[in-house]
Amino acid sequence: MGRIVYVNGEYLPEDEAKVSIFDRGFLMADGVYEVTSVLDGKLIDFDGHAVRLARSLSELDMGNPISHEDLLAVHRELVRVNDVVDGGVYLQITRGAPGDRDFVFPDPEETPQTVVLFTQSKPGMAESPQAKVGIKVISIEDIRWGRRDIKTVQLLYPSMGKMMAKKAGCDDAWLVEDGAVTEGTSNNAYIVKGGKIITRNLNSDILHGITRAAVLRFAREAQMEVEERPFTIEEAQNADEAFITSASMFVMPVVEIDGEAVGEGVPGSVAPRLREIYLEESRKAAI
Ligand code: PDD
User: In the chain, is it the N or the C terminus that has fewer CB atoms within a 10 Å radius of its CB?
Assistant: First the structure.
């Protein structure tokens, strides 16, 4: 049996859910999204994702078609009806389907936005065996647009980056601009040197990860030193540890960058510890 998904106010079997071919998400990538993790049937960092969603919409002059409370209710209902224990909820909001193709934005009074949500079940997600061994990354040039702080559905280049990594026998790619790492294809990037956690500072060059915010908060609470600044691939290869964070990967050690082992080439102590703290605290705060 397929999933029950949410489309514009209706809960439907996934094969009955439809969006117009004129939808601007489809024709223009004119849409934003969020991915909220689910652990033990509860939502992780829901408020953070809802706040970032509102900001993404506002930065693109899109209205917010669903209230915070309704959004939470839809997330919870989808988790409930689909019996999701571990996994995530994907949400996408586009500028709607004006009935033809046009570069000019449609009048929001005449064209309602499209709201789609669906669940992804990933049993045992938090106990991923990958977290024990870490992942390998390659570096590629960051040729994405300049507003990476907005979580748009323009994911072709990140998707190509993952394919380049796969072809190279690796798991993911780190994006490099003007000699410094911006972030991973779908995650934020970090290194650890002499006990200090280094990650790129927030501006429009990177997505302001919800997991990043939580992990840095927990790190500071645990008296770990954090420095927010750009770093190079060479610096990362010479670091003691490297890792990534995202809603779906939590904290994941990176053990190899462009064929060079990071530290001993196995997960160190900081990333696994942060993963443990993040999962424990997130589970406690889940709603
Ligand atoms: N990706 N940077 C990029 C480019 C991302 O796409 C993501 C999230 C992150 C991490 O953000 P957060 O911690 O809020 O998940 C950073 C999601 C998970 C995705 O596209 O599936």
Answer: N
